[in-house]
Design a protein that fits this description.
The complex is a heterodimer.
Chain A (H helix, E strand, L loop, with lengths): L13 H9 L4 H17 L3 H18 L3 H25 L4 E5 L2 E4 H25 L4 H10 L4 H30 L8 H31 L17 H21 L3
Antiparallel strand pairs in A: 1-2
Chain B lengths: L4 E10 L8 E9 L3 E5 L6 H8 L7 E6 L2 E3 L2 H10 E4 L3 H4 L5 H11 L4 H14 L15 H13 L5 E5 L7 H12 L4 E5 L3 H7 L2 E6 L2 E4 L3
Parallel strand pairs in B: 3-8, 3-9, 6-7, 7-8
Antiparallel strand pairs in B: 1-2, 1-4, 4-5, 9-10
Helix pairs in contact in B: 4-5, 4-6
């Protein structure tokens, strides 16, 4: 069964599950490192520091062995957006004129800012992929919970992962039932009303499903706190070494930024 | 011989819509060693009755006795739910963890077991049902029959005294059905079974109670 593109990386595929057991770092270490990297990179202005950060992220992707297809797809998605930023920012930021198109002038400052944003975004994306693309979404959820993220958000993540497929199947069933009775989407009142009912029915069913799932969880002693089989895993030596390395590198970036 | 009933519903009334009561002074007893089949038309309140036993629904009138005590408020039912395992109609409602092992361990963890203990219990329960190599399987990718057996494991892992089975055979093929029947037959637990499958009831039940117009016609008082 294919979980669909949006679920790629989220759906707990069997292959991915095996990969997880190969990883040595605790998901919490990966999360903290990724967040710290993102915060530091966002704060950087110095071009040399930004270049080093991007190089670090690229190196991390190579070391982590992120699958090329996944890497390409994510980077292209982000850089499509970045092209828009690159195309518009120079015209909207005032400063020394660089060129003019159809009476509008592009500024050197604007171009600089746009480049900086693109570099930062790419560096953060690459580092996220390197550190977290092999962590299964459920493991990520539990790690967030153990790091003190709000339980409601953690539950939301865990349930999204589990029920995405069920809801997709539910939607497909409803769509098939409509098609079987000759429904073809057009641009008329009948179509809009039918699609409205489809969405409404999906929401009602999801709500009822949620109630039944909660009931089933209560029957097994659920009291609002998610316990996990990984609750007593401890951080290992590898996590300590990795953490120290990350701190040194991030301090180095800030040092570059501060101008030696 | 008078056996202390494990569960007794006495004069229970319940309705989702006050104008149309589902249960109207229904009374039912389940004693140790019994396997009671509950029969009745669609919508006659069989599932509702199971949900009343574990306190997912609260009766408008009447009393729920379970394991030697009357049960009224939510807190009373925490123990009931641990000792009376309810198997839901749709396995997808019950299996919500990513992997089978995590799902089976969910109950024991909630009952306060350490993760290592919970893992051991889950593995033993799966092995007991002949699902020893299922631990790492992804729950939503199991077949219908596999899902059913795994939900049984999630309930049995809590080591209940009573099993409440809500249409356990729906959607099962011949082989899965046979396997489930054999597994249940070998269990010592008292059971309350809701099923439209006559052969399945015949094979398992020690007694039949029928639910009609909100009342229960129980072969044994």
């Amino acid at each position: 069964m294919n979980a669909g593109d949006s679920a790629e990386g989220w759906a707990a595929g069997d292959v991915r599950f095996r990969m997880l057991s190969d990883t040595t770092l605790d998901p919490r270490t990966r999360l903290l490192a990724a967040v710290a990297f993102a915060i530091v990179v966002t704060a950087l202005h110095d071009r040399a520091a930004l270049a080093v950060a991007l190089a670090m992220a690229a190196a991390a992707v190579l070391v982590a062995g992120v699958p090329a297809r996944m890497l390409l797809r994510r980077v292209l998605a982000l850089d499509g957006l970045m092209l828009v930023v690159l195309a518009t920012l120079p015209f909207t930021v005032p400063g020394e004129p660089l060129a003019s198109v159809a009476g509008l002038s592009a500024s050197r400052e604007g171009l600089g800012q746009a480049m900086a944003i693109a570099v930062k975004a790419n560096a953060v994306l690459l580092m996220l992929l390197a550190l977290l693309s092999r962590v299964l979404a459920p493991a990520l959820g539990h790690a967030l919970g153990r790091l003190g993220a709000p339980p409601a958000l953690v539950h939301l993540l865990l349930f999204t992962v589990r029920y995405l497929d069920v809801l997709t199947a539910e939607l497909a069933r409803l769509r098939r039932a409509m098609t079987a009775r000759g429904f073809r989407p057009r641009t008329d009142r009948h179509t809009w009303r039918s699609l409205g009912w489809l969405v409404g029915m999906l929401m009602v069913r999801s709500f009822e499903r949620a109630e039944r799932v909660l009931a089933a969880m209560k029957c097994r002693g659920f009291d609002g706190r998610f316990r996990s089989l990984d609750d007593d895993t401890r951080l290992a030596a590898a996590d300590a070494v990795f953490g120290c390395g990350a701190i040194v590198l991030l301090t180095g970036l800030l040092w570059l930024e501060a101008g030696w | 011989m008078v056996r202390e009933p494990l569960i007794r519903l006495e004069g229970v009334c319940f309705g989702y819509d006050p104008a149309r009561p589902v249960l109207d002074h229904a009374t039912l007893t389940l004693a140790a060693g019994e396997r009671v089949a509950l029969v009745g038309d669609n919508g006659s309140g069989k599932t509702t009755l199971l949900h009343l036993v574990v306190g997912l629904l609260k009766p408008a009138a009447g009393t729920v006795w379970a394991f030697g005590r009357e049960r009224r408020i939510e807190r009373d039912f925490t123990e009931v739910r641990a000792r009376a395992g309810l198997l839901f109609q749709d396995p997808d409602d019950q299996l919500f963890c990513p992997t089978v092992l995590e799902d089976v361990a969910f109950g024991p963890l909630n009952l306060g077991r350490r993760p290592a203990e919970a893992r051991a219990i889950a593995e033993a329960t799966l092995a007991d049902l002949g699902l020893g190599d299922f631990g790492a399987r992804i729950t939503h990718r199991l077949s219908g029959g596999e899902k059913r057996l795994v939900t049984l494991a999630t309930v049995l892992a809590m080591q209940p005294d009573v099993l409440l089975l809500d249409e356990p055979t729906v959607g099962l093929d011949e082989r899965s059905l046979r396997r489930l029947t054999e597994l249940l037959e070998a269990r010592p637990q008292a059971m309350l079974i809701v099923s439209h499958d006559g052969a399945f009831r015949e094979r398992l039940a020690t007694r039949v109670a029928s639910l009609r117009e909100g009342r229960i016609n129980d072969a044994c008082p």
